[in-house]
Give the backbone structure.
Amino acid sequence: MSIKTKVVVLLLISLCLTGLIVSGSGLLVLYSKNFNNTQENMNGQAAQLAGEVSELFASFTRSGEFYANDPDLKSGDAARIQEKIDTYFAATWGADHLVFLNSSGIRVATAPYEAKAIGVSIADRKFFKDTMNDQKSHISDVILNRATGVPSVVVTQPVKTEDGKMAGMVVQSVDLKTLQDFLSQIRVGTDGVVAIVARDGSVVAHSNSDMLHGGNKVAEELLHTLEENPGRLLAYVDLAGRDSLAVSLPIRNTDWQVILSLPMSEFKSTFYESLKSMLIALFIGLVVVGFIAWLFLIRLLRPMGQMVQQVARIGNGDLTVAMQSATQDEIGILARAIASSIGNFRNMIIEVQEASKLVSASSEELTANTDQLTQTANQIAEVIAEVASGTTNQMQAVDNAMDVVERMSAGLQQITANTESVSAMAGKTSDTAQEGGRSIQEVNNQMANIEMSVTNSAQMVDKLGRRSKEIGQIVETIAGLAGQTNLLALNAAIEAARAGEQGRGFAVVAEEVKKLAEQSQSAAEEIANLIRETQEDTDKAVTAMDEGVSEVKKGSEVVHIAGQAFQEIGGLVKQVSEQIADISSAIEQISDDSQHFVGSIKDIALVSKTVTSQSQTVSAATEEQAASLHGIASSVADLAKMAGDLQRIVSQFRI
């Protein structure tokens, strides 16, 4: 699943959750607001109606107080009282009857005038008793007018004489139609009702006049609840059996309450209409917000899509990608970070390419040097073989010389025993001396050749030591390059780890580079060990060669002395031929010289043995060096192969 799809799904989920949260909270707020508005509106209407009814009865109270101060009503004269009652009734609004009762409860006057009502006692009425008891104004409950048979409410006002005695009372009968007219001005919703209820629950007035008949009363419990919560919207079941909401307010100057009732269905209908409007507005808002968010998302993710394509090119080895982003958000930061990583990786690849080329060139040079060293070692082996062959010839010459010496000793004994045969033996001795001279000359030449060969071998071994040191320096350079390559591979792996999933391709390449670097470093260490062993063997060979040269020089000197001795023998032989007389002294001299010659021959034999032993040592060291050079050549070939593999891997990147 792409990031775009994930973000779209997240956006849709967020919008849905936001819609649910907003709609849920909006639902609560809307319900609360609708409830409060309904309560506020119904409170306003109830207050208006309660004020009007209260003002109506306040006007009755003021009128009654005015009537009570009239002297004619205090006079007790029925005619005067009737006249005043008629006058007041004509000026009164809202009352359907105006009656004057004496202190005994008998009608003295009534307006409109009804003769049959005059003289009738209504002392049994509660309102009469209450007024007489406390001598204060009272408003009665709804009563049935005995004269007219119409339900009404009366307002009483006591009339007192100047001395404070009860002269009677003025009774104003309120026409309930007046209250109905008040209720008709109040409209609660569409099907709501308005009622004025007395303390005992009886209905004084109702917007539905049918509810005034049949003795309908508000339940005492509901009435008590309404009295305790004035102005608050409460749920109840109205007289028609409908679930409703009601607000009540007391009417000042009375014991009544104004009750406004709204059917629950109408309240819910209003609420649902508001909810519908709110949900439509919310849906439109969410659509607009979602569309804007979608446009913003497309704009936001467009550079990310480009980045994905560019990173894919990088994963395929194309490091020529130029990643740019002008935004300052996280995507822009990521683009700049990737661009920086590409630059670093490009530089690293360039360095690796240069290092691999250097390793390859060094490998080729090391291969050439190794081949040259191998050839040199082979030449040294050939020279050592020749030295060994010359030493063998020298040993044969020494053996011959020993034979000659033995024959010379035998001749000397014969000369001592038989001087007569000196002349004959002199010729033979001369021949033998000449042959010994030639042998000595050959030995001298061989020793010169041995000295030259050993010197050349020492020079070759010394050159081989210098070459080994050069190879050691090259191997150290290779090891340094391998370490640097390993460090570069480690940096590449770190950069790839930082790049995360996009750097997985970098990590694979970096791991391969690291493995090749580790293999190169291991091969360089093996080469260094082989070079170190070769240098040690070379040093030993150089030391042995120096000792061989010294011994060969000594042998040359001895051979030179032997040559001189043979020359002297030749001269003595000639003297023997010429001077027989001096034969005794000459024989003695020859005997001494022969002993000296025997010692020289022994020295030559010892030197020859030493040279032979040193030749064998040099030969063994040369063979070991040759084997080491073969190992070095194999390691160099492996190193060259690794360098080629490294170049092949690095060449996959286009920079």
